[in-house]
Design brief:
The complex is a heterodimer of chains A (670) and B (72). With 670 residues, chain A is an alpha+beta fold. Among the domains of chain A are: 97 residues, Calcium-transporting ATPase, cytoplasmic transduction domain A (Distorted Sandwich), CATH 2.70.150.10; 130 residues, HAD superfamily/HAD-like (Rossmann fold); 107 residues, 3-Layer(aba) Sandwich (Calcium-transporting ATPase, cytoplasmic domain N). The longest helix of chain A is centred in the last third of the chain and has 37 residues. The model of chain A has no long low-confidence stretch (mean pLDDT 83). Chain B has one domain: Alpha-Beta Plaits (2-Layer Sandwich), CATH 3.30.70. In chain B, helix 1 crosses helix 2. Classes of the chains: A alpha+beta (670), B alpha+beta (72). The interface between A and B is medium-sized, with 31 and 20 residues.
């Protein structure tokens, strides 16, 4: 029965190997290396020879005895099998020999060599079943070949999916377009991007307007409109019009290069599961070897000395050899980095950049998510909504406020600039003094202007009037006299509420919002979004200490989500720092562990779901591989599993684990 | 100083062994092998000549995995 199965399998191997070698491998895009092609040919011929030998029974050889010398048939048969064994296994034997010379005994080559040579020796002794040793070696090689092919192929596929690297840039020379290497374009050079092409380098549009598809960067399929004067980041695809772009960065410093660098190197930061597995692999192989040795020696001795039974060396030796076949930890070792690699690749296609496998792992254990308010849950686009209690004209008050805040890039100051509507004349401003968390004091046209919150007014000892509307209140004082206040309010992002509730649904236990804004505003926003806990009126330094406080009290891991502009210290303090809306912001990409490429807070939920799926698959693979191996070891020890089962368990588990790992790539529908 | 080298290695466990071997080589501060992108990232100790160190890293790797390659 077993013989029929093995013969069938051999035939299948011959057929598959032939198809792979001569149909698939002959195509130029097959991605097979030369080494793989040669190996395939060896597998093919060895399997064919073995299959042929199977149909020549031992009796056919014994007829030779009469013609030549006694037992000539036996030796001829052995020689033929031995030749086939060398054909399929010579490299393993060579590597095993080298390993011994280098005093590295416990590698899988050595184990396979010992196991199969042992089986051959047993077969010579019994003039019986050479098939087993050769078949085991053959199937082992098939497994190795599959592993190298499948892993290489998926590695290339994932890399290709992530590859948003532009191949060329169009430069106008003497009125004609020329394609050049993007590396050669200098800062300030003008490049032309035609419809359907990728923007190769970051820059500012000098001519033309178009819609840009940013899906490769953000996962967002809605096109973005761009016109002259707008900044564009590399990696977008130009969809409709011809654009002329003045570059602001070198290719190597452009968004697209940075992202690629980041994603490619992400899998070099290893996760705890990976470390665990590589430590485990280091112990596993020697442990199995010593157990094999013990299995070969101890039971026969016990039988002989303790129980008075025959020692039965052959049986126990065979069981020990079976052990050796199961000792290769490859299925385990390959599937974990492959899962992480696929997970990071899948996430990057969704506009979520994960900087390392370790961060994906920590993200999956996140129980507390802390949001910064401005720019994260709200749009960070403030608008002046009212001006109250002022004596001077509205426009004048706004002008003073805009001038006083002209040096700041805070969203509030930018909204004041917008309300002012003109470029502030910096020459009119001097002695700018920024008071962190409070506001600004500056000299405008020689008058001392203070603009800030109530803390600033109290500090200056100026009586102020509180406002009834919610929003950020900028109190103004000119020359020490109260001059009224400006109400600025922020708009909550449309998807923030869904994001908070979906985080809860995804298993996050607590959501927290931190903000420098007034308590009234913060509470109102928090209540409308359904955030569990709010800390308001925080200085940037307070945010760090609040996060530290939360870190002490948490169970599970804590993630901080910010816009990456003012919160770099908090990003690095949290277990996981997530920067949001980071398109083009280098500082955010530097500081964060995970970068969400667009402004949608729902992406945070998606990131957590991806990490959970990926880690789930990692654990499945660990359990699967370890479980099957342990089961085989056990069955092998009691003599139920033979060498065939051992090798199929080894190869089969590896194939399953690799296929399972690939599932990490499919995260679009999460 | 940190440098990245392209490598060629077939099996994941061998990549781990190479990483181990590289870490133990004199003159190497730390080494990471990324099997997925087939890269080795080596950080050299203060005042070491990368070329010379990499020669011995390559030799050490060849000892644990004769089939591997590091493109210096």
């Amino acid at each position: 029965m077993q013989e029929i199965v093995v013969n069938g399998l051999l035939a299948a191997v011959v057929l598959t190997a032939a198809i792979l070698r001569f149909a698939v491998g002959a195509r130029s895009g097959s991605g097979m290396t030369k080494k793989q092609k040669t190996m395939l040919l060896r597998i093919l011929s060895a399997a064919a020879v073995l299959l042929g030998l199977q149909f020549l029974p031992a009796e056919a050889f014994s007829r030779l005895d009469g013609y030549l010398f006694p037992s000539a048939g036996r030796w001829a048969r052995f020689a033929l099998y031995l030749a086939d064994y060398f054909l399929i296994g010579y490299d393993i034997l060579r590597k095993a020999g080298k390993g011994v010379l280098n005093r590295r005994v416990f590698d899988e080559n050595f184990l396979m060599a010992v196991a199969t040579v042992g089986a051959m020796a047993l077969a010579v002794y019994e003039n019986g079943d050479y098939l087993e040793a050769i078949a085991v070696m053959l199937f082992y090689q098939v497994g190795e070949w599959f592993q190298s092919y499948a892993v290489g192929k998926s590695r290339r596929n994932i890399s290709e999916l992530m590859d948003i690297r532009p191949d060329y840039a169009n430069v106008e020379r003497d009125g004609k377009l020329e394609q050049v290497d993007p590396d050669e374009v200098e800062i300030g050079g003008v490049i032309v991007v035609q419809p359907g092409e990728k923007v190769p380098i970051d820059g500012i549009i000098v001519e033309g307007s178009s819609s840009l598809n940013t899906s490769a960067l953000t996962g967002e399929s809605l096109p973005r409109e761009a016109k002259a004067g707008d900044e564009v980041v590399s990696g977008c695809v130009n969809m409709t019009g011809v654009l002329r772009i003045r570059t602001t960065k070198e290719f190597g410093e452009s968004t697209v290069s940075k992202i690629l660098d980041l994603v490619e190197n992400a899998s070099s930061r290893k996760s705890r599961s990976e470390d665990f597995i590589s430590r485990f692999a280091r112990i596993y192989t020697p442990a199995v070897c010593y157990s094999a040795l013990a299995l070969a020696v101890l039971p026969p001795l016990v039988r002989m000395l303790g129980m008075g039974l025959p020692a039965d060396w052959g049986t126990w030796l065979y069981r020990a050899l079976t052990f050796l076949v199961i000792s290769c930890p490859c299925a385990l070792v390959i599937s974990i980095p492959l899962s992480f690699f696929a997970g990071i690749g899948g996430a990057s296609r969704e506009g979520i950049l994960v900087k390392g496998s370790n961060y994906l792992e920590i993200l999956s254990q996140t129980k507390v998510v802390v949001f910064d308010k401005t720019g994260t849950l709200t749009q960070g686009v403030f608008e002046v909504n009212g001006i109250h209690h002022n004596e001077m004209e509205d426009a004048k008050l706004i002008e003073y406020a805009a001038l006083a805040e002209s040096a700041s890039s805070h969203p509030i100051s930018r909204s004041l600039q917008r309300a002012y509507g003109r470029e502030p004349d910096r020459a009119r401003v001097s002695d700018i003094q920024e008071i962190s968390g409070s506001g600004v004091i500056a000299k405008v046209d020689g008058m001392e202007v203070a603009a800030g919150n109530d803390k600033l007014m109290r500090r200056l000892g100026i009586p102020h009037i509180d406002c009834h509307s919610t929003g950020t209140i900028i109190h103004m004082a000119v020359n020490g006299a109260y001059a009224g206040h400006i109400v600025i309010s922020d708009i909550v992002k449309p998807r923030s509420k869904d994001a908070i509730s979906s985080l809860k649904a995804a298993g996050v236990e607590k959501t927290v919002m931190l903000t420098g804004d007034a308590k009234k505003v913060a509470d109102q926003v928090a209540a409308s979004l359904g955030v569990d806990q709010v800390y308001s009126e925080l200085l940037p330094a307070d945010k760090v200490s609040k996060v530290e406080e939360l870190l002490e009290r948490r169970r599970g891991k804590l993630a901080f989500v910010g816009d990456g502009i003012n919160d770099a210290p908090v990003l690095s303090r949290a277990d996981i720092g997530v920067a949001m809306g980071a398109m083009g912001s280098d500082a955010a990409i530097e500081a964060a562990d995970i970068v969400l490429m667009d402004d949608d807070p729902m992406k945070m939920t998606k990131a957590i779901k991806i990490s959970r799926k990926c880690l789930g698959i990692v654990y499945q693979n660990i359990v699967l591989a370890l479980g099957v191996k342990l089961a085989c070891l056990l069955l092998g020890a009691v003599g139920v599993a033979n060498m065939y089962l051992a090798i199929f368990a080894d190869v089969g588990v590896m194939i399953l684990a690799v296929l399972n790992a690939i599932r990490c790539l499919f995260v679009r529908k999460l | 100083m940190k440098k990245t080298y392209k490598i060629e290695v077939d099996c994941a466990n061998c990549a781990n062994l190479m990483e181990d071997a590289a870490r133990r080589t004199a003159g190497v501060q730390s080494a990471t092998v990324n099997f997925m992108t087939q890269k080795m990232i080596v950080e050299f100790a203060e005042g070491q000549e990368p070329r010379a160190v990499m020669e011995s890293v390559l030799a050490a790797c060849k000892r644990v995995e004769p089939d591997c390659e590091i493109f210096l």
